[in-house]
Amino acid sequence: MLKKCPQLVLFSVLSLIPIGHAQDNDPDYATKIKEWTTRPEFMSPLVDHLPKSSTVPSPKDVLGYYIGEPKRLTYYADVLRYYRTLAEKSPRVKVIDIGKTEEGRESIMVFVGSEDSIKNLDTYKKNLARLADPRGLTDEQAKEIIANTKPIYTLSGGLHSAELGPPEMLMELAYRLATEDSPLIKKIRSEVVVAIMPVADPDGRDRSIDWYNRYLIDVTDDNAIFEGGVPYWGKYTKHDDNRDINYAGLANQNLLKWYLDWHPPIMHDLHESVWFLYTYSGQAPQNTLFDPILWGELPWFSNFEMAQLTKYGMPGVWTHGYVDGWSPGYVAIMSANHNGMMRMYEIMGNGGATTMHRFIPESKPELKGGSPGPGGDVTKRQWYRPNPPYKDVTWSMRNNTNYAETGVLTALQMTSAFPQTILENFYTKSKNSIHSGETQAPYAFIIPSDQEDMTRAAFVIKILRMQGIEVGRATSEIKLKDATYPAGSLVVKCNQPYGRLAKTLLGKQVDPDPELTTYDDSAWTMGLMTRTTITPITDAAVLMTAVEPVTEYTPPSKIDSQPTAVAYAIPDHGSPNMITLRYQLKDVNIKIAEAAFKSGNTSIPAGSFIVPASAANELKPAATQLGLDAVALTSQPTVATHNADLPRVAIFSTWGGTQDVGWVRYTFDQYRVPYDLIFKERVLKGDLHSDYDLILIPNQARNAKALVTDIPKGKIPLAYTKTDKFKFLGDYGSSDDITGGMGAQGVTELQRFTEQGGLLVTLGTSSFFPPDFGITPRIDSGTTTPRFYAPGPIVEAEITQPTNPIFYGYSNTTIPVRYANGPLFRMDPDQNKADVLMRFPGGDKAVLSGLMNGADEIKGRAAVVRTSVGKGEVVMFTTNPVWRWQNIGEFRMMFNTILNYKNLDIHTNHKVRTD
Ligand SMILES: [Zn+2]
């Protein structure tokens, strides 16, 4: 039924919509895209034509092909070339550079609007900034500003590089918006400024297109798809560039900087996954700190789109039932975080531009009540999916373009019908944010300045500032009802435009409905993630505290000057910067104190460095720059020490799971920890111990077997190599065939490495590997039950061997860690007692932030285990101490493992290693 009806609907709608036939259209365009659209109902009256302009170049004029042509994709340099040519020729288009990526590509923003709007961009920019920060603005003044401002509606595509369609569509959209004279487009052009980020991850786009052209271009059937995609998108991450809550990626940083400059009230990010078009409505669980207006705005738009596209006869447009409103960590959510609105589409794509036969092989079970989260049968009718997608369909790139462009034009139609409402809402949400900081506790957060390590506090302040949140430094002591804080403490008052974002980032995530799932991590509390004291203040008097604004925060560093010093102690208070200092002074004979001691009145904790005075000239500027102290010692301390020897480090990566490895690489690069990135190719060469002392296997596969088998061998080898034709492949590693995994031979080599004296370190799910493949024969792995559910909550962990070097810099025996769903170890309690270095107390009370269902299941389970294997040893983290540039409070456990790699068994019952 559904498959026949829509054409009739389409026919009747066509006669209702005036399409500006006065203008000359490109007849070839209409013919071609009709040919490439696989069914008539996959087309709409908004995109079935394209104007022909004698002055403004269409994508075809510049690129040589129409958007949506099968097997055609546009590399980033050509995308830039198109927009720059368009801006040169059309007074309705303007391009600005907004920064560079890791690989040196330029991020740009393209503005499209009426000539008048483009001329007035700076006025709108200034006005939007006033609405974004309405302090000192009366409602009357705001009304006047709103009357003289056009909303900026931002679109971005290609954040996920294998989702190749939207960046193509956006070029056609820009041209259409600049040239078409239909009443709809004229209205959009006159009422709205459209800002386009053509490719949100420019580096990944080129690599993905190379991969498509090399391997996927002739694949036309779901059945023929082989496993294994391009190993890298951007330099470090793949999908997680949309989980980059602390803006590690440069393209994301560029966009955030631009955002805070221009304050577009709406940001709309275009993705590809589910069939045919899902439009985000911000379903439960919702972060209740977002303004209630937002939850009305989101379905307002998505329902309009669903109704309009359905009216045009396009099946399979739905809302709700997919992504929730919980996490503030998606890229485009920067707009909702700053009192605007994030919008998002998932459009059906083929992972390329080849027309393919697609089908849903079996109906997956619908999630609880057909409610949230990905999964479920998208072809099933639901109240939010009244005209579901087909089960079996031939799908083309042009279908993808038609859906995305029609949807976006519909959203712009809505915006052009209510431009003042959009701006009023933006203004009101900004005002509400300030007001809620005055009326709803907490009124502020205080980061006390007397914390022993302020470098982690500095990380928090840097992120808050990057997000546009105002931070103040108290000019005198802060006296409140319940406590006093020293002068110099950092104060984040919530009565500011982004006060609610401060609450979101710094507060605890306490109320996700346990009946619901979360689309991503359920917790992100920055104080817990960074092990920084950040105190929510419930005394409204804090708002009166005198502060001076902090633009940049440099952590203090106290360096003794003492001509008779024989050595300097670098007190270890848990700064991750300790490892950077060690590597910066890599040729200096640094010792590590194994216990606390005193120098005069100064306490020097275990883990502190003892640096010979002869290195003072090198040490002092480095320590200052890293926010570390140097305490002069006039005699050598009597405390037990060991050498801070530096291991030769390799990070092992599968070819199929480079992303979590990428976060570790990013972190090591930031802290300047050198390493070799190795793949199965190096492991299979053998003799690993002659090149490496420590091999780190980051989290990367779902279990041990998947780590070993990686991408199963298919019909053809998949080379990831640089060639003249594919110059964007072969970065960050290369392989003549990425399939096949390390296999049994690889396991043997890793086992040999540890038996010969190497240190094998595994993180997260990679910690299934040593027990499951017999490298640690006396330890078994197990898993939680299916009812256990823990989407990245922050839980308490208890250090059971506090003197072990892995915990240098941790002054408490309980610490917050992000739960990573690693293995539950089963081990003989007597034999292995000394091996368990950290464990989970478990139970609901130990859940500090976020959601964990079944918290009793992890009661008493090991979180960090160290065990000897032959002459070497294995350290297994069931946590992931290097997670998404986020849990810097856990980084030290990883770094300590490196800095003390020969001494990880001191203070345990095991024999001391001699090699
Ligand atoms: Zn995506």
Largest sheet: 10 strands, mixed
Query: Alpha-carbon distance between the termini?
Result: 76 Å
Return residue spans where pLDDT drops below 50 for at least 5 consecutive residues. Answer: 1-16, 366-373, 908-915
Which ligands appear in the coordinates? Answer: zinc ion
Helicity range: 25-40%
Give the overall silhouette: globular
The proportion of residues in beta strands is 15-25%
Find the structural class using helix and strand composition.
Answer: alpha+beta
Q: What average pLDDT do the residues reach?
A: 94
Q: Mind telling me the C-alpha Rg?
A: 29 Å
Number of helices: 27
Strand tally: 38
Write the layout of secondary structure elements.
Elements: H1 5-14, H2 27-36, H3 59-63, H4 76-89, E1 93-100, E2 106-112, H5 115-119, H6 121-132, H7 139-147, E3 152-157, H8 165-179, H9 183-191, E4 193-197, H10 202-216, H11 250-262, E5 266-273, E6 277-279, E7 283-286, H12 292-311, E8 317-319, E9 324-325, H13 334-337, E10 341-348, E11 356-359, E12 392-395, H14 397-417, H15 419-439, E13 444-447, H16 455-466, E14 472-474, E15 478-479, E16 484-485, E17 490-493, H17 499-506, H18 526-530, E18 535-537, E19 547-549, E20 567-570, H19 577-584, E21 591-593, E22 597-599, E23 602-604, E24 609-612, H20 616-626, E25 631-633, E26 641-643, E27 649-652, H21 658-670, E28 676-678, H22 680-685, E29 694-697, H23 704-709, H24 743-755, E30 759-763, H25 769-772, E31 779-782, E32 794-799, E33 814-818, E34 824-827, H26 829-832, E35 836-839, E36 847-849, E37 862-869, E38 872-877, H27 888-899
Parallel strand pairs: 3-4, 3-5, 5-10, 6-8, 7-9, 27-28, 27-29, 29-30, 30-38
Antiparallel strand pairs: 1-2, 2-4, 6-10, 11-12, 13-17, 13-18, 14-17, 14-19, 15-16, 20-24, 20-25, 21-24, 21-26, 22-23, 31-34, 32-33, 32-35, 32-36, 35-37, 37-38
Helix pairs in contact: 4-8, 7-15, 8-14, 9-14, 12-14, 19-20
The protein binds zinc ion.
